[in-house]
Design a protein that fits this description.
The protein is α/β, with parallel strands linked by helices and 503 residues long. It folds into two domains: 390 residues, Alkaline Phosphatase, subunit A; 78 residues, Arylsulfatase, C-terminal domain (2-Layer Sandwich), CATH 3.30.1120. The chain contains eleven helices and 19 strands. The strands form four sheets. Strands 1, 2, 3, 6, 8, 11, 12, 13, 14 and 15 form a ten-stranded mixed beta sheet that branches.
Length: 503
């Protein structure tokens, strides 16, 4: 398979999509869960967790230093990654648990895997879905809540009509929501749960430590081991890769591998426990590094590594407990050097690692400081495979292919970037970041766990926040009253975007 991709006809618009010539590269997208910018030593020299394989991936590709998840929590980000549009456009986007649904992605909506399948790709997903699924009870009535009682009502003989295989994936092996956290502990294959949950989860047999207290009570299947779930996901992805290369070597593939790691509870598989000097959560991060390395090694063993574009990122910043306890217990800061963490609209809530390797196309060891969003994956993949996105599809996705091929010498991929933290928003343009709200937008910094991390309010009475990230990357000094013109300009731009984005 050749990697020759013509960029002669790249559109000149900021978010344009290219037409590409020649055969298409394979694409592997690895999405970690709650992995912080500071959790990786290639982003944080003071990290206390060894991540040699991810560090090597960065050396072999491009490391983005100003990449952002569309939201500061999981479900909205995953929706945006798969559709190229901000979650606000879908209306209210909950964070699903257990049997929550229905799927947020409409049946007719163009998705990343559907676009790639239309271009001749075999598409597969392994891991955490978390964009909503429709389950039914014995009478055929929808089970729309995600709690334990709702899970007990599910008739597992019935198919799931809006599973990933109905949204563009040829095959799916994974879970409805967070594999180690939510009320439904069972594997989905295609659009069914072949081994249904048969008993209540017995938490007394699970590890006990400060990073273990995130299990919701639930029903668990006999073949489901919470501590080994990522190893099962890894095996399924490796099986897909080997099977595909053997049976259809000329057909490009797209693999979306969404890990449980490193979402709490931090239950590393047996082979990783005690392997770091950073406790259970450090072991879990180390397991993630192993998973990434195994996927890369599999591509190498199958002889397709040089024909494969690999992307690695996270759905949002690191979780509150892991940040607070890791700072205190091990001197490790998963949010370093940013203010805030998961759920917050400050940088720590949504500035995430983003690494892209594409042998022969992306310069090894390169770095980009361009501001980008995970919504941009869809338009970028469209450019890579020569797809033309139809009008209205992926409206918040910008093409990063020129950046990947030529670095930061190209024009900025984005004019501005919007972030969504729960029900509030911020907007970034150049060095200026405007938050259209007071406070974090997410976590309560008056709580005992976070009080030590609260910073003084430097603009009491201001209804919003303005920071110059070039001068103040830690968002310590609110310049709202110092630059009223910039506040008005950015707030106006955000309001116009919100008005145009209403569903």
């Amino acid at each position: 398979m050749t990697l020759t991709v013509s960029i002669v006809t790249l559109l000149a618009s900021v978010c344009g999509v290219a037409r590409a010539a020649g055969a298409h590269p394979n694409i592997v997208l690895i999405l970690a869960d709650d992995l912080g910018y500071g959790d990786l030593s290639c982003y944080n020299a003071q990290s206390k967790v060894p991540t040699p394989r991810i560090d090597r991936l960065a050396r072999e590709g491009m490391r983005f230093t100003d990449a952002h998840s569309p939201s500061t929590v999981c479900t909205p980000t995953r929706y945006s990654l798969l559709t190229g549009q901000m979650p606000f456009r879908a209306g209210r986007v909950p964070v699903f648990t257990g049997a929550g649904g229905p799927c947020l992605i409409r049946e007719e909506q163009l998705t990343l895997p559907r676009m790639l399948r239309n271009r001749g790709y075999a598409t597969a997903m392994t891991g955490k879905w978390h964009v909503g699924l429709s389950f039914f009870d014995a009478e055929g009535q929808p089970v729309t809540r995600g709690d334990l009682d709702s899970v007990k009502r599910i008739d597992f003989t019935r198919a799931i009509p809006d599973a990933p295989i109905h949204r563009g994936f040829d095959r799916f092996f994974g879970t409805a929501c967070c594999p180690g956290t939510d009320h439904l502990y069972a594997f989905i294959v295609g659009d069914r749960i072949p081994v249904p949950p048969a008993r209540l989860l017995d938490k007394s047999k699970l590890p006990k430590h400060p990073y273990a207290n995130d299990n919701r009570p639930g029903m668990i299947a006999p073949d489901y081991d919470i501590e080994e779930v990522d190893m099962v996901f890894l095996q399924k992805s490796k099986e897909f890769l080997a099977e595909h290369v053997k049976r259809q070597p000329a057909k490009p593939f797209f693999l979306y591998h969404a890990t449980s790691a490193v979402h709490l509870p931090s239950f590393a598989a047996a082979q990783f426990r005690g392997k770091t000097e950073a406790g259970p959560h450090g072991d879990f991060i180390h397991e993630l590094d192993f998973i990434v390395g195994e996927l890369l090694d599999t591509l190498e063993r199958l002889g397709v590594a040089d024909d494969t574009l690999v992307m690695l990122s996270s759905d949002n910043g690191p979780e509150v407990t892991s940040v607070a306890r890791m700072r205190a217990d091990y001197g490790h800061d998963g949010a370093r050097p940013w203010r805030g963490m998961k759920r917050d609209d400050w940088e720590g809530g949504h500035r995430v690692p983003f690494i892209v390797r594409w042998p022969g196309r992306v310069r090894p060891g390169s770095t980009s400081a361009q501001t980008v969003s995970l919504t941009d994956v869809m338009a970028t993949c469209a450019a890579v495979c020569g797809a033309t996105l139809p009008a209205g599809a992926a409206p918040d996705s910008c093409n990063l292919l020129p950046v990947l091929l030529h670095g930061d010498g190209t024009r900025p991929a984005r004019d501005y970037t919007v972030q969504q933290a729960l029900a509030v928003f911020s907007i970034r343009q150049g060095p200026w970041k405007y938050l259209d709200h007071r406070g974090s937008g997410g976590n309560n910094y008056d709580s005992p766990e976070l009080r030590a991390f609260a910073l003084p309010d430097t603009a009491p009475g201001a209804p919003g926040q303005l920071y110059n990230l070039d001068d103040d990357p830690g968002e310590t000094t609110n310049l709202y009253f110092n630059h009223p013109g910039i506040v008005a300009e950015l707030k106006g731009l955000l309001d116009r975007w919100k008005s145009s984005a209403k569903p």
